[in-house]
Amino acid sequence: SIIVSEQNFLDQRQRLESAHATEQMNDLRRALSNAERRIAELESIKPPAGAEAERGNSLDAFFAAFETSFRGGGEEIKNRQSVYLDRVAAASQEFPVLDIGCGRGEWIELLNGRNIAAYGIELNNVHVSEARKRNLDVREAEGLAHLRSLDDGSLSGVTGFQVIEHLDWHDLISMVDEIKRVLTPGGFLLFETPNPENLLVGASTFWGDPSHRAPLRPSVMRFTVEQRGFSGAEVIYLHPDNEEMLLPGADEISVRLNQLLYGARDYAIWARKA
Asked: How far apart are the first and last CA of the chain?
């Protein structure tokens, strides 16, 4: 009888455990069903037609004014960019130069003044409108999408001033790859961006633009363009602070601090397609 009782106990225990497992399984099925229903509800919620595009353009006037206030006026920008003219003129061929994120078109104006065929693309419709009023070839387009629409070997060069720090890293790599494809052999790439090796830039002024993603070190950009197949990559350091900002003295500490705090605020990466 003891053996029978033990067997009954085991049978009863097995039935209870089975019932408990079944209940837990049913609870999991109900939870999964609720989750799937909630996901379907969320996926069905879409913004009104055109809302995303409207949001994309809603701050164009703000950022146009922001750039004028914090980056400088047209003549100031042209003075800064003119340092590249001889280099670009020597490298340009019969194909045009494309300027990505051309803003108000100062660089296009400079290139036209040297009889270099060039056009720009820009998403900010305030800038596009202003550039067209000055009879500049500026088109409203997104950089990566426009590059993908071009034929192989159809450009002499591609430039971008204060643009790459706004890009997602995957988009930046894709852009470098597309630029290499659309350049004619010997064509050039030129990107200017804030220099985070200047500690005041990396820690403060870079983050003053809310549309910036992350600073890009010169060594990282040189590695990137070389790794993606460009040759002769060169870093060009630009725009140090005025001399009156420098710490006095020629000792090692003063020299190093002046370099770290008041050295080049921007740099450019220059490379050629083999």
From this structure: 93
